[in-house]
Amino acid sequence: LWSTSPALAKASDWQAAVQEASVQKIGLASPKTAPYGAAAMAAMDQTGVLPAVESNLVFGKNVGQAFEYAWSGATDASFVALSQALSEKGVTGRYWLVSEAALITQNACVLSGAGDLALAFFDFVLGDAAAREIINLYGYK
Question: What is the pTM of this model?
Answer without folding.
Answer: 0.88
